[in-house]
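Title: Comparing notes on inverse folding

I've been comparing how different people in this forum approach sequence design from structure. To keep things fair, I'm posting one structure and asking everyone to reply with a full sequence. Here's the target:
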């Protein structure tokens, strides 16, 4: 589990290996991740978009940008949190993800980036 706080918004990430399967004549490794966004600030915020850098040990990097998270743009009041889970496919059993959420502060109406720290995606059989 990894954690990071940006401007009073705490991000906590945990991961799991979900299995392997063939797709388009290639082996793929499936990973799940759970992200909790906790508002420790004094202002309500809304998550409006996300950016991901998805890396695998074969040196492939995929960049993903999109609105919200899993189809939602949650408003998170002070002291509250929002948790969601998603997943990704890698071409290798070892990789990582990092990124950020674009968030709007409802009090100041200013947008800022909340950093999602690098989290590892490792299949258990690939690690000593």
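Reply #1:
Here's my take.
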């Amino acid at each position: 589990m990894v954690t990071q706080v940006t401007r009073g918004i705490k991000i906590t990430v945990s991961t799991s290996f979900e299995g392997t399967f063939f797709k388009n004549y290639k082996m793929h490794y499936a990973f799940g991740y759970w992200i909790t966004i906790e508002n420790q600030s004094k202002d309500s915020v809304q998550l409006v978009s996300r950016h991901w850098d998805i890396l695998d040990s074969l040196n492939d990097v995929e960049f993903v940008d999109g609105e919200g998270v899993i189809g939602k743009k949650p408003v998170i009041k002070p002291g509250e949190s929002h948790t969601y889970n998603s997943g990704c496919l890698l071409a290798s059993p070892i990789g990582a993800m990092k990124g950020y959420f674009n968030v709007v502060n409802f009090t100041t109406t200013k947008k800022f980036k909340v950093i999602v720290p690098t989290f590892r995606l490792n299949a258990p059989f690939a690690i000593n």
